[in-house]
Specification:
The chain is about 5% helix and about 35% strand. With about 260 residues, it is mostly beta strands.
């Protein structure tokens, strides 16, 4: 079975304003996420540069490729995210268009965000930033307790986000759950054993791969012995051995012998 190795230099980086839009003159939290070709989060950092060439913000991921930054956009300008993925792959991407006017929502430290009836604190609010609009069913904003004695409690808001059925498979946001496909159980490579003289007219042994063994250990002298039967057809047999020494350094050796 062929093994397909994803391109390790390809990444997808997205920047999404917390309120859904970038409004001129409104300080906005922008969430971002970087994933590789396998969809796994990867470290990313950089800066936000305006079309005037001014650096207006800096950013760096803090959890599996996700993070956030603050931006005060100005209508008529364009903004670009310029940075590095895994400290070696540069990128540049343009942020969303700046609107001349509109509405922007910001979750402050004294507010509470609730996702599907589960409270999300500021340490774990990356869960909200990772949501796409296709996953959200509705958003409700309400005062926590408008009749409370404390002015702080009276001015506290609860932002409740409800997702569509099946939009989020994982409800335990404090754990990371990954499904690993695993490995196939090693099967024994077929190698004939000729214990009896060959009968005339019997089908020839035309194997092209004479011997394969995935696990060979050498002795204290670095030597090992293997036994196998050659095929019937005369040929040049190429032998290649690959392995790893005690220091974890890969080693390889080659030789050729002739079957007449």
């Amino acid at each position: 079975m062929p093994i397909i190795i994803p391109d390790s230099t390809k990444y997808n980086i997205g920047f999404s304003p917390e309120s859904g839009s970038l409004v001129s003159g409104v300080n906005t939290v922008v969430g971002f996420k970087a994933v590789d070709a396998m969809g796994k989060g990867c470290d990313v950092k950089g800066k936000i540069v305006s079309s005037d060439g001014d650096t207006v913000s800096w950013f760096e991921s803090f959890h599996i490729g996700m993070g956030k930054l603050n931006l005060l956009p100005i209508y008529g300008k364009k903004y670009y995210a310029i940075g590095m993925v895994k400290n070696k792959f540069p990128f540049k991407t343009e942020l969303a268009e700046i609107l001349p006017e509109g509405f922007s929502m910001l979750v402050q430290n004294n507010d509470t965000a609730v996702l599907d009836n589960m409270t999300i604190n500021r340490r774990d609010d990356y869960v909200i930033y990772a949501l796409s609009m296709e996953q959200v069913d509705r958003i409700l904003i309400s005062k926590s307790d408008p009749l409370a004695d404390s002015p702080t409690l009276r001015n506290r808001y609860v932002i409740s986000i409800y997702t569509k059925p099946g939009a989020i498979e994982k409800k335990e946001f404090y754990t990371i759950s990954e499904q690993i496909a695993g490995y196939d159980k090693a099967r024994e490579f077929y190698s004939p054993t000729y214990t009896k003289p060959k009968i005339e007219g019997e089908r020839q042994d035309l194997r092209t791969t004479i011997y394969w063994n995935h696990s060979i250990s050498t002795d204290e002298n670095g030597e090992a012995t293997v036994k196998f039967y050659n095929a019937d057809k005369p040929a040049y047999i190429r032998v290649q051995a690959e392995g790893m020494n005690e220091q974890g350094i890969p080693v390889m050796g080659r030789m050729v012998y002739v079957v007449r």
